[in-house]
Amino acid sequence: MELNNLEKVRLDKALRMRQNGRDPYPTRTAVSNNISEAISAFTADETVEHVFTLGGRIRATRPMGKIIFAHIEDGFGRIQLFFRVNTLGEEAMKQFLDEFDLGDFIQATGKLFRTKTGEITLEVTDFKMLAKAITPLPAAKDEVVDGEIVRHATLSDPEARYRQRYADLAVNSDVRKVFQVRAGVVRAIRQFLDDRGFLEVETPILQPIYGGAAAKPFVTHHNQLKQDLFLRISFELYLKRLLVGMLDRVYEIGRDFRNEGVSFKHNPEFTQLEFYWAYADYLKVMELTEQMVAFTCDKVLGTRKVTFNGQELDFNPPWKRVELRQGLIDACGIDIAAFPTETGLEEAMKAKGIKVKPGMPRGKLIDQLIGDYLEINFIQPTFLYDYPRDISPLAKNKPGDPSTVERFEGFVGGMELCNAFTELNEPMEQEARFLEMGREYGADDEERHPMDEDYLQAMSYGMPPCGGFGMGIDRLTMLLADKRTIREVILFPHLRSRDEE
């Protein structure tokens, strides 16, 4: 690691500390409480003496002759430290000024008191270095604009923040709050499903046959088995195998991987919730979805009305419901039922002035219409339901309508949030669907759904009627944390290599 001049100065301080018998990176600490706990104990009863040993990162120092004020911060709070020569002596005061810099981790022991301004402060009786920061953290910068001082946030460049998330978290407390929201979302969903008898399970990430979604997988290779494997694009087919095995309500929260484009709402790896519910259908799953998201809002934010992208979203059930065929008729004047072939639908779209990529399957054409005319306009929570069979090979037909399946997608804030089916449980029909998809899409098409013989074998033992559901944890976090890009809610998002920029 090549050091700049400032980093060399800090490294020299660490080396001198070691030469003088003081370890800049000690193995043990004597920290007794986090800062929030100490402040809570003090405010609960200020009539008794409260002595604590606290640890944290130095955020600010203010030397004032024979006294020094400093602020430290840990993952739970911030507090002021008070050093004075009468307590510590000249040598200790000089040691602090010579050896400690902003960003260093310090351990400080003392009693808590309130200053004349009312600030809770630790009067330091002893201190030591816990970790010397060689590289200074980014600092806020002030600029005079039109005669007024404008403060620019620390580490505000998005590219730098995503590449150095550790520094981003260290200096931007609002970023830490985003990931506290994310953790709260996962915790609330688990509680909701656990309380309703769902069993959390784990299914393979490395799969010999990928499936459960229309996406291009990542491919890897197992050397000893001499076998190509795929990083999963969905949990679906494994979770439904468990229904065959009499686990009637199952869910998984974990990573999926899709080797496709990136955008403000797509990352190559993302966190997904999927659940499967025996003896339920897509209507019951709709109701459960509304309840689950509302419960999550209650637990994480304490309200079901959320501001996202400058608009108030209301997650109170019931959500709006729009039938897909009618929705497209209303939005763009095209009745997809009147055009059962890709050629007919393509011509109808062209007649409306819609640009179409030649040779697209009918399912992809319908997806294009949904994205261009419906999804972007669904701001309030909305269920779009009853999809064409062309784009839903794992969903059950709507009774009396073989061209339509019982599927819904939930949209919020102009983007897809979730997807659900009344699941197909007839093995011969499922095999026919797989074969149909194989004919519709070319062998090199990333949307092609491969045949899974073992899944068909599982279904042949009998799979109960069931409803299935999938939702992106990242997207729900975006909505609840008011972030317009998925990179803001993933700790380490995938970025282009620096060499490509």
UniProtKB/TrEMBL annotation:
GO terms for molecular function: ATP binding; lysine-tRNA ligase activity; magnesium ion binding; tRNA binding. Residues 179-493 form the Aminoacyl-transfer RNA synthetases class-II family profile domain. Its EC number is 6.1.1.6. Pfam families: tRNA-synt_2, tRNA_anti-codon. Mg(2+) 1 binds at E409, E416. The lineage of its organism: Bacteria, Bacillati, Chloroflexota, Anaerolineae, Anaerolineales. Binds 3 Mg(2+) ions per subunit. The gene is lysS. It comes from Leptolinea tardivitalis. Its cofactor is Mg(2+). One of its GO terms (cellular component) is cytosol. GO terms for biological process: lysyl-tRNA aminoacylation. Belongs to the class-II aminoacyl-tRNA synthetase family. It is found in: Cytoplasm. Keywords: Aminoacyl-tRNA synthetase, ATP-binding, Cytoplasm, Ligase, Magnesium, Metal-binding, Nucleotide-binding, Protein biosynthesis. It catalyses: tRNA(Lys) + L-lysine + ATP = L-lysyl-tRNA(Lys) + AMP + diphosphate. Mg(2+) 2 binds at E416. InterPro entries: Aa-tRNA-synt_II, aa-tRNA-synth_II, aa-tRNA-synth_II/BPL/LPL, Lys-tRNA-ligase_II, Lys-tRNA-ligase_II_N, Lys-tRNA-synth_II_C, NA-bd_OB-fold, NA-bd_OB_tRNA. This is Lysine--tRNA ligase. Homodimer.
